[in-house]
Design goal:
heterotrimer, A mainly alpha (about 625), B mainly alpha (about 475), C mainly alpha (about 100), B: about 475 residues, two-stranded antiparallel ribbon, 20 helices, C: about 100 residues
Chain lengths: ~625, ~475, ~100
């Protein structure tokens, strides 16, 4: 296959966003900034169409992987950039483009009238473009490029309202935490170059599957997991995500559903053939995922800010995906990733609608209540998405979560128990949120009479997303096929690479197991019932437990946040110490001190030179006499 | 007879002479001559494109007493760095166009370019040293005459500090030349002829003398304390030349003199030199975090960036050397752009502190855009130039001595921790009391044109670094271990 | 006592007189005079030895020394005049511009 045979759709995937961004930056922003979104929305349509076109191609067996140009070369070292349109990539790509486009449409309504409307849309679309690039990269260096671009765009969007102190701090926190994770990815890429001499995914799969043992592979695997932990907000690097909701709500929706946090899971999916070869590492991934899922689900049940509840919910669901990956269920992880994209985007945008109706950037559960009458469409969307999240049959979330629960069930032990608890916990926090926001009017709430349904441009995308979340269960069979084609080998692709790989890990999704499905539903019902008990039948409960040790514990994420803050402060204190005391004081002081000594000596000697000609003459005579004495001796 | 290489350094020198005589019209002369200089480099570079082998042009003059001879030679590394000099010189002239300065200012810049070009061309160590020292004089005046408040102190410190390094270098060179004479009976300063094997047991001393001389210039921690002062007090264009080209002389000296003469000694010294380089990246980044003055912060970040160059160069692998050489150009562009913008800020407000501004993203969006862009390039965002150099250098270092690469990567991570808070404090935070943001008007067309050029190059190198790497690679092939 | 010894004696006496005047006196004119005396003393010795060795080079040196002395007198006298005009007399102790 040559570059000329690459389908037009694959080119459009990049050509449309790049030209839309350039056109927006150089033309629209000057001519008519409030119309910047028009070319970008057009580009979204093109990208979505192209993504589905490619998905159809891949589904019928036309996946490909092609090097397009040599990016950098020196001596024997070379990195090519190319395109890899294969199952896992295109499955996520289709979800990202559809969900992302709907969020773009939503943002056009949500951000209308903002002074920096043009800037917002340009960065927003760049964010989208970065994710497309990440999903179609065919080697680690290219992936790293887009990985970082995703990070920068999220930084700019989280800090979009930069006049707010909290937004600036959150943006910085997000970026630096991601940067700490990128340390892992960069190191992994460098080690891959060192160990394998190539960074191309498929060549790596071949080398890894060849049966030779590689000394650096365990380190590479750990680094990759570390990177994924930062990007996908897993313990111990999850803490940036809940703060990152300081950005405008469409940003949060895009970050949580489509473009940012899924990148970490996707990295692990791409690297799975490498990671699976390291003994013990899959277990580590499973445990990280399980622990994060459980504790984030618990914390999500205690938060009051709507967006923060959803943020912890994202952390929890990403944990579930990692759990699935760790148990070797690549297919289940990707399935949940896709379904999660739909329901999480819908939930965030519902919160956006409520915030928009109240004219504030975020909403506290105290401020609202009983909205199911005044905001019917939003309520309906939220309900669908929430049921999907809680795993209620026959909505999408049921199927994807069931696959993960099934894997954990078969693995047994504490992980099975944890996954069941997560199922109960997710149902609890999302039903608590549902009850508090849409039912049960309370005394603290703001005047609900003013709250009215969102305008169509805000309501319709949300409804579509919610419908997607409800129907996503249908995607089970296609996803299986996508994943298998992507990781088992490419039907057509690089020359000479047509052999089928026999890689570890279960790519097929499990069949419905009635025991697990029943148990999962029971746990969800339990969570929902608890939520009803604690919010509706005893409305004061949510406030009574606050103020004590429990709140301190939950607010600090079981103390982890405090540790992180201390660590950050320690680093800046060390820097201060080095910069001010060691460098300025000691090192430079030493140099300046020596200069000072020289100056002092000069002044001392100068005192003996009073400027009298006779003195100088005497010195001259003495000197000459000494010299003569030396010569004549 | 056409002497292309002599022309290269004579053009800016004539430019300096003309500038000093033109009085009030000297800046026009400077513009014409720096453009001519850049064109000359461009023509020579294009005509002599390296295809397969090395690009080499030689000029050999008559030999004088003690084997001193006028001997110039240019390969792609030299031409690349001279190109950088010429480009930044032109940028500096355009960027300082509206400064009210005397003719000497322009003459100094042209003279500086001439001397720098000579350093990159000379293959006779005597002339190498002469040009090396000659760079100090114009820079001394640039800092001392047109700098900010504490300029005299900074200028003297700069001069003495770097002069001390050069003296060590001179001693090493003299030892080398006389040892060669003693062993072979031939006086020569020719780099290609001199053989460090004649030194015998004194070789390590000579090697370290040379390295010290170069390390002061780079600058390598702990020999760096002149740099923040010099940068802080120098005028913006002076900082650009200082960071953009003068620091590169140190790395160039290593590549051209120390490594070829002492291949084995330098490899043995890798743990120490590489360790110091890796330490510089972390130390520079940590120091930058503690700064409250924009210029000082960028100066410390320079120390960190040059640390990456060194890591790559010392690794003596193909990707490390090429990446290190590219990083020299990258750093010139990125840090040059940052210093220029701090200069624009200073011209408008006479302040440089991180807390003196605020809210500039709303008041001066172009400035914010370019500053953000350059900051991202400087912290090594992939897709922009800084990443290419860092990635290749670290990749080289990893295969030479993994610990070094590991340490260097901490520097990459820390970069975000100093650059972004500074960006936020100046551009995002609300203007506090005592803020001078009101005086800061957005960039005008001239300034924007300069920054568009620099940013365009940063993006180009980041997205398609291959031609750039291919340019430098042949010249460095001989050093690969 | 040979002629050479006499000449050396005269030379030495003249030279040390000159040196004493230059170093001990503070009158600028006198110091200049002392300088000339030292140069003249050297000239005496040179002329004698030129005769002794039939060496013309020594005579050339003598001519050179005379020329230097003349030049020096010109410069010195004009400097002294300048200082006097400046209103500070001709006292070397008052000239302290060289103070470090």
């Amino acid at each position: 296959m040559t570059a000329a045979q690459v389908p037009l759709a694959a080119w459009l995937l990049f050509a449309a966003p790049v030209s839309a961004i350039l056109f927006g930056f150089f033309v629209m922003r000057r001519v008519k900034p409030e119309w910047t979104h028009l070319p970008i929305l057009l580009s979204c349509v093109i990208v979505t169409a192209a993504a589905f076109w490619l998905a159809a191609d891949v589904y019928t067996g036309h996946s490909f992987d092609l090097n397009l140009f040599r990016w950098a070369a020196a001596g024997a070292f070379g990195v090519d950039f190319g395109l890899r349109i294969d199952g896992p990539g295109v499955a996520v790509l289709a979800m990202v483009s559809l969900v992302g486009s709907l969020i773009h449409l939503y943002a056009a309504g949500y951000m209308k009238g903002d002074a920096a409307f043009g800037r917002f849309f340009l960065i927003f679309h760049l964010f989208f473009l970065a994710m497309i690039g990440l999903l179609t990269a065919n080697n680690y260096v290219q992936l790293y490029l887009f990985w970082e671009l995703v990070g920068v765009c999220s930084y700019l969007l989280v800090g979009f309202w930069f006049h707010k102190e909290s937004a600036r701090a959150a943006a910085l926190k997000a970026f630096i935490t991601n940067r700490i994770g990128d340390f892992g990815l960069l190191l992994a890429v460098l080690l891959i170059v060192l160990q394998f001499k190539v960074t191309h995914f498929h060549l790596l799969y071949l080398k890894a599957a060849s049966g030779v043992s590689f000394a650096l592979l365990p380190l590479i695997g750990v680094c990759l997991v570390w990177a994924a932990c930062a990007k996908s907000a897993q313990f111990p690097l999850y803490f940036w995500l809940p703060d990152a909701m300081e950005g405008p709500t469409p940003t949060s929706a895009l970050m949580h559903a489509a473009t940012m946090v899924t990148a970490g899971v996707f990295l692990l999916v791409r690297s799975w053939p490498l990671i699976a070869l390291v003994p013990g590492l899959p277990d580590l991934v499973a445990w990280i995922g399980g622990v994060t899922a459980l504790f984030a689900a618990i914390i999500a049940g205690t938060k009051k800010d709507l967006k923060r509840i959803l943020a912890y919910s994202t952390v929890s669901h990403l944990g579930l995906m990692m759990l699935a990956l760790g148990l070797g269920q690549v297919g289940a992880a990707l399935f949940h990733l896709v379904v999660h994209g739909f329901f999480k985007a819908a939930l965030f945008l519902c919160v956006g609608n409520i915030a928009h109706a109240l004219h504030q950037s975020t909403v506290n559960v105290d401020d609202v209540g009983g909205l199911h009458k005044s905001m019917r469409l939003t309520y309906l969307s939220f309900l669908l998405a929430a049921l999907s999240l809680a795993g209620v049959f026959p909505l999408g979330g049921f199927f994807s979560k069931d696959a993960i629960l099934d894997a954990a069930w078969h693995h047994g032990g504490p992980l099975a128990l944890m996954s069941m608890l997560v199922a109960a916990g997710s149902a609890f926090y999302i039903f608590r949120m549902l009850f508090l926001v849409f039912y049960g009017a309370r005394s603290q709430q703001k005047d609900a009479a003013h709250v009215h349904e969102a305008e169509p441009i805000l309501g319709i995308p949300v409804l579509f997303l919610a419908l997607g979340a409800a129907a996503a269960g249908l995607l089970k069979a296609p996803l299986e096929r996508f994943v298998v084609s992507g990781l088992r080998g490419l039907p057509s692709g690089l020359p000479g690479l047509n052999l089928v790989l026999n890689l570890p890990g279960e790519l097929f999704l499990p069949h419905l197991n009635w025991i697990v499905a029943g148990l999962g539903t029971l746990m969800a019902a339990l969570g929902a019932a608890t939520a009803w008990r604690l919010t509706m039948s005893d409305p004061g409960f949510d406030w009574r437990w606050r103020g004590g040790v429990a709140e301190a514990m939950f607010e600090s994420d079981f103390g982890w946040k405090i540790l992180i803050d201390r660590g950050a402060r320690a680093v800046s204190r060390v820097a201060d110490c080095i910069g001010r005391v060691l460098d300025k004081g000691c090192l430079d002081g030493l140099i300046e001190g020596m200069a000072g000594l020289t100056r002092a000596a000069g002044t001392l000697i100068a005192r003996s030179a009073q400027g009298r000609v006779n003195d100088y003459l005497w010195w001259m005579v003495i000197g000459t006499a000494l010299l003569l004495g030396r010569v004549l001796r | 007879m056409i002497l292309p290489l002599t022309t290269l350094w004579i053009v800016p020198l004539i430019g300096a002479a003309v500038c000093s005589m033109m009085g009030s019209r000297s800046k026009h002369a400077a513009l014409i001559f720096s453009a001519a200089f850049l064109a000359a480099v461009g023509i020579i570079g294009l005509l002599q494109r390296p295809t397969e082998g090395l690009l080499v042009i030689n000029e050999i003059g008559p030999a004088w007493a003690y084997g001193i001879s006028y001997r110039l030679s240019a390969d792609s590394l030299s031409i690349g760095l001279i190109g950088l000099t010429a480009f930044l010189n032109l940028i500096c002239v355009i960027a300082s166009w509206e400064l009210e300065v005397s003719a000497g200012y322009w003459a100094c810049f042209m003279a500086l370019s001439a001397a720098l070009t000579g350093v990159f061309l000379a293959r006779d160590l005597f002339f190498f040293y002469i040009f090396w020292e000659a760079t100090l004089v114009p820079m001394f005046f640039i800092i001392g005459l047109w700098g900010s408040s504490n300029r005299l102190h900074a200028a003297v410190k700069f001069f003495l500090f770097t002069f001390l390094g050069s003296v060590l270098m001179l001693l090493a060179l003299l030892a080398l030349v006389s040892a060669h004479h003693r062993a072979t009976g031939v006086w020569t300063w020719d780099l290609a002829v001199l053989d460090a094997g004649t030194l015998g047991s004194a070789a390590p001393l000579v090697f370290w003398g040379l390295v010290l001389g170069f390390a002061v210039k780079i600058p390598m921690v702990p020999l760096h304390t002149w740099l923040p002062d010099a940068h802080t007090e120098a005028p913006a264009a002076g900082s650009v030349m200082l960071a953009g080209v003068m620091l590169k002389m140190g790395v160039y000296g290593l590549l051209r003199v120390a490594l070829p003469l002492f291949p084995i000694l330098s490899w043995d010294a890798l743990p120490i030199l590489g360790g110091l380089a890796a330490f510089s990246t972390i130390y520079g980044a940590l120091c930058a975090m503690a700064q409250t003055d924009l210029k000082r912060m960028i100066a410390y970040s320079s120390i960190a960036h040059l640390g990456f160059c060194l890591l790559g160069v010392l690794s003596r692998t193909s990707q490390g050397l090429t990446g290190g050489a590219l990083q020299l150009v990258n750093h010139g562009l990125t840090t040059g752009a940052l210093f220029l913008m701090v200069g624009f800020l200073y011209e408008r407000s006479h302040k440089r502190g991180l807390s003196d501004f605020g809210d500039l993203a709303s008041r001066a969006p172009y400035l914010a855009f370019f500053f953000g862009f350059s900051t991202l390039a400087s912290i090594g965002l992939p897709g922009l130039n800084g990443f290419v150099g860092e990635f290749l250098s670290l990749s080289g270092a990893l295969s030479a001595l993994p610990v070094l690469a590991f340490a260097g990567m901490f520097g990459v991570t820390l970069a975000a921790a100093y650059a972004l808070p500074a960006f936020q404090a100046v551009f995002w935070a609300p203007a506090g009391s005592g803020s001078v943001s009101a005086k800061v008007t957005d960039l005008n067309y001239r300034e924007r044109a300069v920054l568009w050029t620099l940013s365009g190059l940063m993006l180009w190198i980041g997205l398609a670094p291959r031609p750039w790497l291919a340019w430098f690679e042949p010249a460095l092939r001989g050093l690969v271990r | 006592m040979s002629l050479t010894a006499v000449v050396w004696g005269v030379t030495g006496v003249l030279f040390f007189f000159g040196l004493a005047i230059v170093t001990l006196r503070r009158q600028l004119l006198a110091m200049l005079l002392g300088l000339e005396l030292m140069l003249a003393a050297v000239n005496v010795g040179l002329v004698h030895h030129a005769g002794l060795f039939h060496d013309a080079e020594a005579l050339a040196v003598v001519a050179l020394v005379i020329a230097v002395a003349a030049a020096e007198v010109v410069v010195g006298l004009s400097l002294i005049l300048r200082v006097r005009r400046g209103g500070r007399g001709a006292d070397a102790a008052l000239l302290t511009e060289l103070q470090g």
